[in-house]
Amino acid sequence: MYQDHTIQDVGRLLPTKIEGIEKGKEVDQIVNILKKAKREGLKVSIAGKRHSQGGHTYYPDGVVLDMTSFNKILGINQKNKSIHVGSGATWDEIQNVLSPKGLAVKVMQSQNIFTVGGAISVNVHGRDIKNESLDNSVNWFHLLLPNGKIVKVDPKSEPELFRDVIGGYGLFGVILDVELQVTEDEVYEIRTKKVNVEEFPEYVHSIRENPEVKMAYARISVAPQTLMDSMFVVEYHTTERPLTENLRKLKEEQQPFLTNFLLNLSRKTSFGKDWLWYLQEKYFLSIDKSLLSRNNAMRSESDFLLYRNQKNTDTLQEFFVPIDEYPSYVKDIHEFLKRDDINLLNFTIRYVSKDDSSLLTYAKTDMIAIVALFNHGKQTKEVERAQRSIQKMIDITLKHNGTFYLPYYPYATKKQLLEAYPTFEEFVREKKKYDPNEDMTSLFYERYRN
After folding, report:
1. Per the domain annotation, does 191 fall within a domain?
2. In whole angstroms, what is the distance from residue 295 CA to residue 291 CA?
3. Considering Cα of 182, then 183, then 187, then 190, what sign does the dihedral take?
4. b/e code 158-172 from CB counts within 10 Å (16+ = b)
């Protein structure tokens, strides 16, 4: 017997009644969970930390397969530089076993709280400008198909299924375990500076060609006084410095209270946004020439992702535009933001290489990724108002030959989705090929499938 349960993801905008949650702990048990759900005519959704924001991990009256307990570290091969883990392992757990061995992750999100299975399902990218998206560091994974068969998937032996599952939002089966490529942990020197928006494409091309720059990201102001005009970059340069125990030690959250206080102030006032940007810029420019390990360079604050308020919520969106479109894109977004009242809290900027390893690729060419953090109310009218604003931002993105990321709240129309992802209908056909009864589904898939 299942126990009725209301579930929601981190966005807290889609509370949904489900039949229950099942913890995946052993392969045979997971197989039996799928068989039982099928016998009882229940749909199954797969969940990790549930940090997607658009109902990707549950479905009304369905069963949620929670994979967070399927998190064993199964082996590390130092010679081949690889790690074998259960799909429920978090990046934090992986870093904690890699760091003592002088190894580091190649690609992950900028926060380490997410599971590997979830990261594969959305094909994440991060600060590393040389290793591109996550799919390029996945050697293989075992996949439990909806029909109960377990298959080993890698780019050569199962290219079609690999392309479906990477960035496939958990719709083709249960990722059980994964072998990932890892790399040497090393000491980086941080370099920070201000960059002009018009010169940013040239800057991106230059750091891509610079072998000393391994990681980088940027931020552009959303504060009223410097809106879309002030911009700084953070680079991580290789050094010959030894990896001392002090540098190797994994850092924890730093000053989350201060971060939360400033973010909360910026949610409520224009003054708060101006003050937050001033302090952000001052802080990052002050850490120029400081040293840290690769593992620590990939561990940024995640406390802000856990924002809780009864009346409003923070939601993420991410837009991608070709590198050379960036200055004109920023100009158009600037004009839009001057007219619109959407409560935009932050823009973080990264680089993403062209990537066709996923059927639902977001990087049709070399792209600038713009991660946007918004705050808006949870009432229907407030969500609809935010949706209208974000749809306009999506239109601007599409006008500049861009795309948008799918793990977040589904503000986009079906027309916008198809323009950004012309392979989506092929994706649905592939889904039905491997799961003809659509036994595995989600609110996200149901919104766009027809």
Report:
1. yes
2. 12
3. negative
4. beebbbbbbbbbbbb
Which tens digits make up the pLDDT trace of 15-28? 999 999 999 999 99
Strands of 115-173, DSSP E: 138-144, 150-153
Q: Say which residues have a Cβ less than 8 Å from residue 81's Cβ, sequence separation at least 6.
A: 103, 181, 182, 183, 184
Tokens of 318: 């991410």
Please tell me the distance from the alpha carbon of residue 443 to that of residue 423, in angstroms, as a whole number.
20
Please indicate, yes or no, if residue 440 is contained in any of the structural domains. no
- Sign of the C-alpha dihedral computed for residues 197, 198, 201 and 207 taken in this order: negative
How many domains is the chain partitioned into structurally? 1
Q: Under 8 Å CB-to-CB from 51, ≥6 apart: which residues?
A: 9, 10, 113, 114, 118, 305
Within-domain flag for 173: no
Alpha helices in 326-404 (DSSP H): 326-339, 380-399
Looking up residue 205, the CATH number of its domain turns out to be 3.40.462.20
Establish if 448 belongs to a structural domain.
no
Distance between CA 353 and CA 355 in Å, rounded?
Answer: 6
Of 29, 45, 9, nearest to 439 by C-alpha is 45
Instruction: Tell me how far apart the alpha carbons of residues 196 and 177 are, in angstroms, rounded to a whole number.
Output: 44
pLDDT in tens, 231-271: 999 999 999 999 999 999 998 766 566 677 888 899 999 99
Polymer length of the chain: 450
Mean per-residue pLDDT over the chain, rounded: 94
Cβ proximity of 70 and 25 under 8 Å: yes
Q: Can you tell me the distance from the alpha carbon of 273 to that of 341, in angstroms, rounded to the nearest whole number?
A: 14
pLDDT tens, 339-375? 999 999 999 999 999 999 999 999 999 999 999 999 9
